[in-house]
Amino acid sequence: MKSNSVTDRVSSAHLLPLLKTHFGFDQFLVLQEEIIQHVLTGKDALVLMPTGGGKSLCYQLPALVFDGLTLVISPLIALMKDQVDGLQANGVPAELINSSLSGREIDEIQSSIQRGSVKILYIAPERFASEGFIEFLRNLKISCIAVDEAHCISQWGHDFRPDYLNLKNLRDEFPDASVVALTATATLPVREDIIKHLRLSGQRTFISSFNRPNLHYDIRPKSNALSEIVSLLRSPEYKERAAIIYCFSRKDTESLAADLNSRGIKAEAYHAGLTPKARHDVQDRFIKDETPVITATIAFGMGIDKPDIRLVVHYALPKSIEGYYQETGRAGRDGLPARCVLFYSYADKFKQEYFIGKIDNRTERNNAADKLNQMINFCEGYVCRRHFLLDYFGEKYPQDNCGYCDRCTRTKEEFDADDIGRTILECVNSIGGRFGSGYIIDILRGSNNERILRFGHHNLPSHGEGRAYGVTQLKEIISLMLEKKLLLKTTDEYPVIGLSSAGEKLLTGNERMILPKLRASADKPGKTGALPQKIFSTPASDEGNLFEELRKLRKQLADVRRVPPFVIFPDVALKDMSHRLPQDNESFLAITGVGEKKLEQFGPVFMKAIRNFNIRHGRTN
After folding, report:
1. Which of 55-80 are b and which e, b meaning 16 or more Cβ less than 10 Å from the residue's Cβ?
2. What pLDDT does residue 76 have?
3. By C-alpha distance, which of 81, 79, 75 is closest to 124?
4. Which residue of 71, 179, 409, 567 has the fewest CB atoms within a 10 Å radius of its CB?
5. Residue 335: DSSP 8-state
6. High-pLDDT (> 90) share of the chain, %
7. Helix (H), strand (E), coil (C) string for 265-301
8. To 5 degrees, how large is the angle CA 605–CA 610–CA 612?
């Protein structure tokens, strides 16, 4: 056992008061206490938890128990600052050292550390390349080293960072410290790489469920994406709420931001081509609720610790399931409902394949191609989205229907598709399964383009028989028929659609074709209909108005302190206040996320705001 470990198991009676006082929670989430007890014995750990699952607490709370210093290695400056701001607001003595600080500021922080007045220190992996910094650490008692975003150390990870390789000597430099590696996304090869490179000793791997039950996964054809994005951002669920829209290129981020601003939606672009200061300023305005929408490349990455992002949109196809999972994981970190929308097109698929083809290293190229194919299977597959994601990460989802993704929610309503469905089957049968969906739709819509005339398909009985449906509707019907295995898609050089045995049987039989209700509007082809289900339950009007007033108060307090609003209180706490209307210390402490420190700092001003609101509206507790 390592010399700095806590030799006896720390009782829940000791840990729970720390949890409530500093973090405002009455109980641990799944696996948290078990991991904390393991870390407190001085043993190493690999922790896999989804974003928002409570990974940070697994080293932050032990730091309050250990005698020595806990080092946290974090990849981005913004992420460090947000976490340190939050810890300090909770009464936890935490600091950071990175390139944003002056030499004098760093000296002051190091002096505080030497006096023992700092429990948690956040640093970037680059610091371990500095012999002077290593020498400073050698003279300290290092109890624990937490490596956040640990997948960055693996070449098989989706976000490999060479600077993380500096961490391979941690075990030699600090043999008595426990090492905790944490990540939200790691396949088995990545986990093995983490354990190998960090030389985790006597480690135990803790794997929480990858399921994010508050996220609604939604994949749509990219035929009318801008209009659909505008509709989403104007809807009551997402208007003036935080949203990230991931784009393929720098140019795309800027043009999309311009399009949104021209439609009255405040948005800013973020990409690697901006100066460091410009990137920092854009991110800062987003974190502080001054810019609700960011259009970004994946450069807008893991440094986002904002818990109240309600919408994440992929305007282009992600390169991998890992990347998609991590990017969507930035939505709803506070546990409240959020939506993840991906617009998929073959053009984006071919674009990604083109760039993969330019990778020189054959192993890397094949790895990238495999990851992209899994992403395509996810988009084109007909199973529950949640089921597919969890299966990819080695977790079995117990149900066929999650009730909270586009595949599962759209099956709740149906329409009689017998006439148009049989017409499509007849068309596919007539042209011999040699063409793709676009050509089939041209026939159904009555096109007389050169290709159709050349093949004589303008003479087919099905020619023009689908004019009553819009192009997007016909695409959706064909997709649903593929899902029902009435049609089959095969891909050699180009994807083509043929008739399945089930389709042949239906075409010659008497069974009627019933399909899920279409999402595309009948009167305006391509326009999106209502969302599959309401994301937020509608609060009473007074409750909703109080929530907005508390949001404004939170913003004012955050601006004075120069911290993001969520450092004061997350949305979930404000919603709880709006519902419970606390008016004394005991009831305010019962609010989710409120501990003694938050009560002391902010309880009086928030209770006064609630009391004044009640008086104005003639409402009593």
Report:
1. bbbbbbbbbbbbebbbbbbbbbbbbb
2. 74
3. 75
4. 409
5. S
6. 55
7. CCEEEECCCCCHHHHHHHHHHHHCCCCCEEEECCCCC
8. 95
The residue to which tokens 């790489």 are assigned: 193
Task: Residue 537: count other Cβ atoms within 10 Å of its Cβ.
Answer: 6
Do 415 and 517 touch, CB atoms closer than 8 A? yes
Those residues with Cβ within 8 angstroms of residue 223's Cβ, 6 or more apart along the chain or in another chain: 345, 471, 472, 475, 526
Tell which residue, 388, 222, 241, has the closest CA to residue 314.
222
| Phi-psi sector, 432: left (phi>0), alpha (psi -120 to 50), beta | left
More reliable by pLDDT, 617 or 308: 308
Mean pLDDT of 61-71: 95
Tally of CB atoms within 10 A around 21: 18
pTM for this entry: 0.73
- Cα–Cα–Cα angle for 479, 484, 490, rounded to 5 degrees: 60
Map residue 146 onto helix, strand or coil. Answer: strand
Comparing C-alpha atoms, which of 378, 387, 50, 402 is closest to residue 219? 378
Minimal CA–CA distance to 353: which of 319, 387, 385?
Answer: 319
Please provide the DSSP assignment of 214-249 as one string: TEEEEEEETTSHHHHHHHHHHSTTTTTSEEEEE-SS
Return the pLDDT at 232.
Answer: 95
Chain position carrying tokens 């064909």: 478
Q: Is the pLDDT of residue 200 over 50?
A: yes
Query: Cβ of 432: how many Cβ atoms within 10 Å?
Result: 10
Q: How far apart are CA 211 and CA 141, in angstroms?
A: 38
The DSSP string of 5-41 is S--SPPPHHHHHHHHHHHH--SSPPTTHHHHHHHHHT
pLDDT at 544: 61
What would the two tokens of residue 314 be?
Answer: 């992929």
Q: CA dist 490 to 302, 350, 495, 497, 499, Å?
A: 37, 16, 6, 6, 11
Q: How far apart are CA 544 and CA 145, in angstroms?
A: 43
Give the per-residue pLDDT at 525: 37
Give the CA distances from residue 37 to residues 12, 26, 41, in Å, rounded to whole numbers and listed in that order: 10, 17, 7
Determine the residue type at 385.
R
Host H or E run for residue 105:
helix 103-114
- pLDDT by residue (tens digit) across 416-464? 899 999 999 999 999 998 899 999 999 999 999 999 999 999 999 999 9
pLDDT at 301: 62
Neighbours of 594 (CB within 10 A): 24
Helix/strand/coil for 46: strand
The more confident residue out of 116 and 201 is 116
The continuous run of DSSP H or E covering 346 comes out as: helix 346-356
End-to-end CA distance of the chain: 54
Tokens, residue 494: 């180009």
> Would you state the pLDDT for residue 326?
85
Measured CA to CA, the distance from residue 65 to residue 58 in angstroms comes to 12
Q: Which residue has the tokens 């030699």?
A: 172
Strand partners, 490: 496
Long-range contacts at 28-31 (CB < 8 A, ≥ 24 apart): 28/54, 28/57, 29/53, 29/54, 29/57, 30/208, 30/209, 31/206, 31/208
**DSSP code at position 308:** T
